[in-house]
Amino acid sequence: xxxxxxxxxxxxxxxxxxxxxxxxxxxxxxxxxxxxxxxxxxxxxxxxxxxxxxxxxxxxxxxxxxxxxxxxxxxxxxxxxxxxxxxxxxxxxxxxxxxxxxxxxxxxxxxxxxxxxxxxxxxxxxxxxxxxxxxxxxxxxxxxxxxxxxxxxxxxxxxxxxxxxxxxxxxxxxxxxxxxxxxxxxxxxxxxxxxxxxxxxxxxxxxxxxxxxxxxxxxxxxxxxxxxxxxxxxxxxxxxxxxxxxxxxxxxxxxxxxxxxxxxxxxxxxxxxxxxxxxxxxxxxxxxxxxxxxxxxxxxxxxxxxxxxxxxxxxxxxxxxxxxxxxxxxxxxxxxxxxxxxxxxxxxxxxxxxxxxxxxxxxxxxxxxxxxxxxxxxxxxxxxxxxxxxxxxxxxxxxxxxxxxxxxxxxxxxxxxxxxxxxxxxxxxxxxxxxxxxxxxxxxxxxxxxxxxxxxxxxxxxxxxxxxxxxxxxxxx
Length: 477
Fold this sequence. Notes:
Elements (H helix, E strand, L loop, with lengths): L4 E7 L32 E5 L14 E3 L19 E5 L3 E5 L33 E3 L5 E5 L30 E8 L5 E4 L6 H8 L17 E6 L6 E6 L14 H6 L6 E7 L8 H15 L1 H4 L2 E7 L6 H20 L6 H6 L13 E3 L8 H18 L20 E5 L2 E5 L1 H9 L5 H14 L1 H8 L6 E4 L2 E4 L2
Parallel strand pairs: 1-3, 2-4, 9-11, 9-12, 12-13, 13-14, 16-17
Antiparallel strand pairs: 1-8, 2-7, 5-6, 5-8, 10-11, 15-16, 17-18
């Protein structure tokens, strides 16, 4: 089985509580507060690892938790930070947050390529991934650990000489995330079933896909590495199972397989010279391009090189006739501005009428190797052209810190009940030990200084009324 999707729950570690402690040493009278801070909770980190092929290992475990921070200690000693939990994933993994702001996530993700599991519960295209891990050892912190609480030594002042309270550690982030793997390849093989894609991958690389004389021999995507014998350069080729009409809508799991071509720079479109089960080869070519356009306009615009395969099983006259009709169709597409063959327009100086459509076609036999070397050389040349035309990466905008950002809050009133919303006040409540009267008084002082108390009075809150902050009822004073 090849698993390219998974849905898991991740929980970062809770921050350690601050310590309430007072210095007690011989010959040191009136020792002051010396409680240390709690340790920070551990993070959940995803890391790309080239040693992994797919996400199958996530079938056995769906929940991950990082270590919690230790409680602070006396003598102003801080607690130990919680251990991070690192989840290794194959390069090419995208990370989506379920139920995010850009659209609700699916209830279930299977991602198992077999006849009984569609695995179509992928995140909507409108929701961008939180991270895209494409290089080995690239890391992404998906859930941050909670901050540790401050010990009572932090609260000593000229008016509060002996504070007998400390802060609680904050809980770590908890999320449900969806992982989606898209293969990393320079070129992709596509075509109808039984077009000879696996046979081609087998002859040009060391990959050993299953090859047989019936359709749908390939049931999972495969990768192979091709070496140029002249320059010793390498390119990675992805072979996906054969596509059918309606693939963009999920017929034959086609939408899942097409997703694995989205990272490629070149598509090698195999056309069976004899036709798929008697179908016209040119109709097959047009049908596959239509599915690409319906699945993703960006994928449909990827440069294409057409390979007419199985010339060893078809008469020369038929091969020439099929190649000629394909050239006519490609020429028509060039004149219509089809970006998949824009490289032909570049060669013709932008004039579609002068584009040599036959230059986009190679005739090969994946079984005997006839014409394959030329196809490889052409593929390397087109990839070089595509790399030369790629836009330069824009410099990333630095993240600026704005003082006071995140300190906004608001009063909510409904049916005589009041609530306060805002990260700063919710964090204060989460840090408060409500079993400690002095800690509760400190919370009220902070809310007074923030202006929350005055705002509640203006809104009509009376003394003793319950005010909901961060999911907890706090008595108004």
